[in-house]
Amino acid sequence: MAGEFRNQDNLVVLDADFYNSISADYEKAFGHDIGLLNFINKALSYFPPSSKVLDVGCGTGTPVAKMVAAQGHKVTGIDISPSMVELSRKAVPGGTFEVADMLEYTPAEKMDVVLSILSLFPLSRKDMEAMSPKWADWLLPGGILCICTMDPEEFNPNATMYDEDRMCVNRIPFLFMGDRNEMTLMTRAGWKNMLELAGFELVGTEMNYFEPPAEAKSDPEPHYFIIARKAG
Q1: Which of 42, 61, 7, 96 is nearest to 208 (CA)?
Q2: 46-to-34, 50, 116, 175 alpha-carbon distances in Å
Q3: What is the pLDDT of residues 10-66, one digit of tens each?
Q4: Is 143 helix (H, G, I), strand (E, B) or coil?
Q5: How far apart are CA 124 and CA 25, in angstroms?
Q6: CB-facing half-sphere around the CA of 218: CA atoms within 13 A
Q7: pTM
Q8: What is the Cα–Cα distance from 121 to 170, expressed in whole angstroms?
Q9: Kindly report the CA angle at 145 between 154 and 30, in degrees rounded to 5?
Q10: In whole angstroms, what is the distance from residue 107 CA to residue 219 CA?
């Protein structure tokens, strides 16, 4: 996958400034991921009619928020990048988008669906474990949670990169939009454990490999998709 474990110098921080800097090019590089499009279409079959949907880390609004809104659902989106939020507002004029940090955000009302699509890579394990009960709190009973992340074990991590309980892998080197960074990713077992502790039932999971175009200057992405339902 991402190949060799690289030198640790000059790693980019995945913060608002970084995402602002790539906003103009991101959609061209990642807006046509067939595996992601298929996953969203599958996930839509679980949405109640006219769902209230929260897109956490909405990015440019394309393709996810745009696809969801096109099916008659009410979309609210948040992102740490003001530039990404502006693009979302243009892509989905009927949606509501605001600049917010997911770790500090609380929606104004309970949601039918929460989406977290390729938006967790800046987070630590502690942050992800903090998000799980937040997702549950934001959802109505029986609400749907849809996640797209990456499977760390597809990067062939060495034993020292695992947490002691092997639920999480740290310092995974990754090239993204021409910059090197390091990710922390939960394992499949880690996701199952974390979501069940937060009161979710796993509905389905699947893998898909996305090869970004050469101009994206990004490593291949082993996407891990999750659909879960809140108890109730």
Answers
A1: 42
A2: 19, 12, 16, 34
A3: 798 888 898 888 887 887 778 789 999 999 999 999 999 999 999 999 999 999 999
A4: strand
A5: 26
A6: 17
A7: 0.93
A8: 11
A9: 50
A10: 34
